Amino acid sequence: MTNKTQITEFIIIGFTSSKELQFFLFPFFFLAYLLTFTQHVKIIMVIHMDYHLHTPMYFFLVRLSFLDISYVTVTVPRMLGSFITGNKTISKLKTISFVGCFTQSYIYFLLGTTDYILFSVMSFDRYVAICNPLNYSTIMTWKRCIQLAIGCWVGGFLSISIPTYLKAQLPFCGPNEINHFFCDSVAVMKLACMDTSFIQLIDFFLFSLVLLGSIIFVVFTYTCIILAIVRIPSASRQKKAFSTCSSHFIIMSVSYGSSIFIYVTPTQGTFLDTNKTMSAVSTFLMPILNPFIFTLRNQNFSAAHLVNIFGSSIHLKSL
Prior knowledge:
Blueprint: E1 9-12, H1 19-49, H2 56-73, H3 76-85, E2 95-97, H4 98-131, H5 136-139, H6 142-168, E3 177-178, H7 185-189, H8 197-229, H9 235-264, H10 272-296, H11 299-310
Parallel strand pairs: 1-3
Antiparallel strand pairs: 1-2
Helix pairs in contact: 1-2, 1-3, 1-10, 2-4, 2-10, 4-6, 4-8, 4-9, 6-8, 8-9, 9-10
């Protein structure tokens, strides 16, 4: 930290200061967090216990579930705690140390960025499976899958580390109240005692590079997938391929759209309350939808889930 830094801790205002709204939102957010956590743990356990699901697609799905669990856990428990404390400005659940704040911010955006890169990897996996099925096992080897998974984390680390380091060097002289439910990058930089335009530009460039690069890659691969699907002679195989890929594309589109609105639009620092609401929607909506969209429409996973519940022997068809 620089010598100009005077603030040693921040106060997180939270999602809302309205007691009535806090009373209404607490059970909703708590149940949403509990549902997200249990559903993703179920996915990880089912895939781990059934060898039929030990394929590249489910390998990446497990990684996505781990990211989603971590993503909500790094922010939601503290937000729920702020609902409990209400409008008490000074409390252990509302205050966070300088280091703790930037650590939370770093982990949050690292997980989010890694998530987007993983979406690209998952779309590549579906591209190879549908457009080049004869060479799928040769291309998507376990070694290749592990390399791609590690690459997702490396990409997230490289794109987030430099901006986070630069933000941590900013002088914060006061006030120290963060108008958000976690240490959001935009909300924290609003408190700096100097011009942050250069850091915002770097942040914008790197995040846009990852996000837009991922979008372009996903759109390209799914365009190729759609063109390949329409050439499949079997109607049943067409339906199965469309069902799998459309669910993937829907969840990615919603995730990309919310992030573009919050962090890539030019007015990202102007409407903090709107960004706070969108951040809450993004934080809860995507991790909740992922298990349902990626698994409920998947016959293989549903059958494997029944096997683990009832202990019966069910034949699983490979994708």
